[in-house]
Amino acid sequence: MKIIENLPKFAIVALLVGGVAIIGSKAFMGSSGALIVDVKVPELTKLAQRGKQSFDANCVSCHGDNASGSELGPPLVHDIYNPGHHADQAFYFAAQRGVKRHHWPFGDMPAQPQIRKSQVRDIIHYVRELQIANGILTKQHTM
User: Fold this and answer.
1) Which long-range contacts (CB under 8 A, 24 or more apart) does 128-133 make?
2) Partner of 69 for a Cys bridge, out of 4, 36, 47, 112, CB 3.0 to 4.6 A?
3) What's the mean pLDDT in 102-111?
């Protein structure tokens, strides 16, 4: 009996929680629906500066300025890409083989054969320095 009496209260709470979730997700998404994050850029090491140059020449059109995301690709400065979930080797594989869509509502990432292995190494340093500056640290991956 108490459940039936409290049903309107439960419905209101459910609507409020759902509304807050929708508003929160919209605040995290860009105006076009793209997932774009604010990225604090630290003073970069020389290796990461080279990585930024390679990133800007090869990756920025999809992954956005400073790996913040765009309409075409996800932000790499995101906890999903912490080294415990996506180790450095995942970046090498992505450039070499491409990636099937799995975490995000974007399409598949095509292979990037124009990027040399040494450039991928530099890009990884750049992304990892951005991640650290934005509080994204290694977390053990659990399923």
Assistant:
1) 128/48, 128/83, 128/88, 129/42, 129/44, 129/45, 129/48, 130/39, 130/41, 130/42, 130/66, 130/67, 130/76, 130/77, 131/76, 131/77, 131/81, 131/82, 132/42, 133/40, 133/41, 133/42
2) 36
3) 92
